[in-house]
Amino acid sequence: MFELSERPLDGVKLRATLTEPAAGALVIFEGWVRNENEGRPVTGLFYEAEPKLCASEMEKIAGEAKAKFGVLGVRVAHRVGQLAIGEMAVWVGVTAGHRDAAFAGCRYVIDELKKRLPVWKKEHYADQTTRWVGM
Amino acid sequence: MFELSERPLDGVKLRATLTEPAAGALVIFEGWVRNENEGRPVTGLFYEAEPKLCASEMEKIAGEAKAKFGVLGVRVAHRVGQLAIGEMAVWVGVTAGHRDAAFAGCRYVIDELKKRLPVWKKEHYADQTTRWVGM
Amino acid sequence: MKITIHYFAMLREQARRDEESRETNATTVAELYAELTQAHGFTIPAGNLRAAVNDAFVKMDAPLRDGDVVTFIPPVAGG
Amino acid sequence: MKITIHYFAMLREQARRDEESRETNATTVAELYAELTQAHGFTIPAGNLRAAVNDAFVKMDAPLRDGDVVTFIPPVAGG
Predict the structure, then answer these.
(1) pTM for the model
(2) pLDDT 10s digits, C3-22
(3) Are strands C69-73 and C2-6 parallel, antiparallel or unpaired?
(4) Is B28 within 8 Å of A25 (Cβ atoms)?
(5) Considering only CB atoms, which chain B residues are within 8 Å of A86?
(6) What is the ipTM of this complex?
(7) Which option is the CATH number for C2-73: 3.40.50.620, 2.60.40.180, 3.90.1510.10, 3.10.20.30?
(8) Is the dihedral of CA B65, B71, B73, B79 positive or negative?
(9) For chain C, what are the domain ranges?
(10) Which of A129, B107, C74, D26 has the fewest CB atoms within 10 Å, i.e. the most exposed one?
(11) Residue D66 has pLDDT above 90, yes or no
């Protein structure tokens, strides 16, 4: 259900794990490394994570999404290591019978993930400085 | 920005058209043919569309999404012809700087598309009967 | 005057054709649909239809001109 | 008693290590962090941290036992 990867995330493989005949809607969220943050030019990001706590926390979040919204499948992958502009940092896919639940569930999973998952991000700026986001 | 296709939709190619360095979020909606509707077992769907009106109406909807939510890119594809259970009927991808706009924009596009796009759907049921949905 | 009509979905099936060219005295889209309902036995009420003339959506009381291409839009169900 | 500590992100950089084993008299996670802050010059306030003991999240006043593995969780920023 969840994976951390040091290599580029493969959306095609992740999506393939979610197919099922009762699903009428899939909503995918992808987070990409963008070229600026809060007005500062960004050249790249470094992500770091604690694997065991990530896995257990994601199981909880997925369970909550299923209980709250009745979604069918939840699949999440997060990249770690050094990422360039345009690379995919996170992939969240949620299936449901209909689109209301799929949208609500996908939004819930990415919001909770950002609040709760032990993942850290260091921004690299065009002026060669770096910053651990939120610290 | 919009295409109708008689062949399976290629999410990888569609997504590739949306990459840009200022985008931090991509939200994709996929509509899949599911195995039941309103309690009736479904064996397949037939989709039909009016190409010119679809293209002009999708241009309007995409423009509205950009104006309302500040999204960066909008890409939509709709399948036509006979589809089996599990096949993708529609693909909507919306990019934005951040996830709020990407979610709101994607939701807006699929909701408006379903209300306004000249596309029609005939359901095929397990008991061999068929029905034009909504007529 | 001569009007070309394009049919889709249930209208296409009930008219048993994709399109037709027709001499008509109908002066509006709504009048044309009433005439075609007589001819083909359409079952979709006019109030549930939209229409386009020459690739642009119009109201059902839009006037017709010789050579117009009319598309009737049954209730849509994309996605 | 002996405690193993795992460091991530800014704490890893400031401690200049991924982990360490340490003899300590700290009786709670919070006391341990205070001691480590003295040793390594951590700049993240204890109030901004979460912690896990033996792979489960705990409160900062959770007690420590000999052999525990403690992970300090700086403010997260995934996605």
Answers:
(1) 0.96
(2) 999 999 999 999 999 999 99
(3) parallel
(4) no
(5) 19, 21
(6) 0.95
(7) 3.10.20.30
(8) negative
(9) 2-73
(10) A129
(11) yes
